[in-house]
């Protein structure tokens, strides 16, 4: 919890409070991404790539090769995932997802939103006769950071349940994406490192349960859990999610607020003001070109088309159809203040792939340089197309929802 101390400068307090605003964080993320795209597609590209690929190893810890870009996506982004984990825990315990039926629907939608894009990719590539079916998983991922950033900037007036649904879907999407990488694209999963990381996370949870929440204890444990997860071969940001999920969401006896609420407030400013913009700056800088042919030739490539259509078309359709088919079943329930138009708008946000999709593309087409470029171009243009559609639908739904009365426990996004 942030308190204004005597003599504390008001501008410092104001800065932290402003950075805690999701809209400010989303704006910083989008600006950083735009700058990165410009740099990557201008004569300044060599300078940008040089900074992004500059190696910052820590040999005595076994981290022999770790570029600045990887530190941004595997390291500093873990702070964002930690905050996401805390927020999700609060929703499961005290928020809109405390009803298992409401939690089950976005989880199922995440599965449908991964299955359909992969089928779209397989259909496109198989019909072309190109030997590239091993890239089926490239369009299955949602970039939670960019999706939530766009929602924060353009989702004014939507019910808060919209963000909760997207948050749950995107986290499950990320977790399943990591499972896909571990099973199909990782040959060197280090099980004992993973077990050690989970053990440290369990120790972290034990300390919190006992009320040992001193920063000198929790931060080193969190860094250790992240490091062990990194060494295991699993995407290290998963440690951030798991650490957030074990934070108690109910107040201890004699306290007014929970530790989850306290930590979320303290770390959210760092997540919004530092982690997200830095990540976006190094993740979004991808050239809008592939191979030695023309740009139009690249657009006709089956790998590009499979990835592009998987994200832009397959992702929204998969999520929408899953919700339509399951919402009437007794074990599933759509939030009272959401309808199918909201689900359709949400599907566009879920089509923003970026980070995990780019990672899967690199793993799937390792050693096939030109195919990697086609896959990356499909991810970037598919994500941009999905983002533009999402912006339009978010503004449209926001205006429509503001004219409709909501239930007593529902709020509008600012």
TrEMBL record:
Any one of the GO BP annotations: regulation of pH
Keywords attached to this entry: Antiport, Cell membrane, Ion transport, Membrane, Sodium, Sodium transport, Transmembrane, Transmembrane helix, Transport
Main location: membrane
InterPro entries with a match to the protein in the record: Na/H_antiporter_dom_sf, NhaA
Reactions the enzyme catalyzes: Na(+)(in) + 2 H(+)(out) = Na(+)(out) + 2 H(+)(in)
Membrane-spanning parts: 24-48, 68-86, 107-130, 136-155, 162-185, 191-208, 215-247, 267-291, 303-326, 346-365, 377-396
Localization (cell): Cell inner membrane; Cell membrane
Origin superkingdom: Bacteria
Gene Ontology cellular component annotations, sorted alphabetically: plasma membrane
Keyword Membrane attached: yes
A Pfam family assignment: Na_H_antiport_1
GO molecular function: sodium:proton antiporter activity
Membrane topology: Multi-pass membrane protein
Family according to the record: Belongs to the NhaA Na(+)/H(+) (TC 2.A.33) antiporter family.
Function in brief: Na(+)/H(+) antiporter that extrudes sodium in exchange for external protons.
PANTHER family xrefs: NA(+)_H(+) ANTIPORTER NHAA (PTHR30341:SF0), SODIUM ION/PROTON ANTIPORTER NHAA-RELATED (PTHR30341)
Protein name: Na(+)/H(+) antiporter NhaA
Organism whose genome encodes this protein: Gulosibacter macacae
Lineage: Bacteria, Bacillati, Actinomycetota, Actinomycetes, Micrococcales
Annotated gene: nhaA
């Amino acid at each position: 919890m942030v308190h204004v101390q005597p003599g504390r400068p008001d501008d410092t307090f104001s800065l932290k409070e402003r950075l805690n605003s999701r809209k400010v964080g989303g704006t910083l993320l989008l600006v950083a991404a735009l700058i990165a795209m410009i740099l990557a597609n201008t004569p300044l590209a060599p300078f940008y790539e040089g900074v992004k690929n500059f190696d910052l190893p820590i040999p005595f810890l076994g981290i022999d090769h770790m570029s600045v870009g990887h530190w941004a996506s595997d390291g500093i982004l873990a702070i964002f995932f930690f905050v996401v984990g805390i927020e999700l825990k609060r929703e499961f315990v005290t928020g809109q997802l405390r009803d298992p039926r409401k939690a089950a629907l976005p989880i199922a939608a995440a599965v449908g939103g991964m299955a359909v894009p992969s089928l779209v990719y397989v259909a496109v590539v198989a019909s072309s006769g190109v030997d590239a079916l091993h890239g089926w998983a490239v369009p299955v991922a949602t970039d939670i950071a960019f999706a939530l950033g766009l929602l924060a900037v353009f989702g004014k007036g939507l019910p808060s349940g919209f963000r909760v649904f997207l948050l749950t879907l995107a986290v499950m999407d990320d977790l399943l994406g990591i499972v896909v990488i571990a099973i199909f694209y990782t040959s060197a999963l280090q099980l004992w490192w993973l077990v050690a990381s989970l053990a440290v996370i369990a120790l972290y949870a034990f300390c919190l349960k006992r009320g040992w929440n001193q920063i000198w204890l929790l931060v080193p444990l969190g860094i250790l859990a992240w490091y062990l997860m990194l060494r295991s071969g699993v995407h290290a940001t998963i440690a951030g999610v798991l650490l957030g999920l074990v934070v108690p969401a109910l107040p201890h006896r004699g306290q007014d607020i929970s530790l989850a609420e306290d930590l979320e407030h303290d770390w959210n400013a760092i997540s919004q003001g530092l982690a997200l913009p830095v990540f976006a700056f190094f993740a979004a800088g991808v050239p809008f070109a592939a191979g030695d042919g023309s740009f139009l030739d690249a657009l006709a490539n089956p790998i590009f088309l499979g990835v592009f259509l998987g994200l832009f078309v397959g992702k929204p359709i998969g999520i929408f159809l899953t919700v339509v088919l399951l919402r009437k079943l007794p074990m599933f329930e759509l939030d009272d203040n959401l309808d199918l138009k909201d689900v359709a708008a949400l599907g566009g946000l879920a089509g923003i792939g970026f980070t995990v999709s780019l990672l899967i593309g690199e793993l799937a087409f390792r050693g096939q340089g030109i195919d990697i470029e086609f896959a990356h171009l499909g991810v970037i243009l598919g994500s941009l197309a999905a983002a533009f559609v999402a912006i339009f639908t978010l503004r449209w739904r926001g205006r429509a929802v503001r004219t409709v009365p909501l239930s007593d426990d529902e709020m509008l996004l600012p």
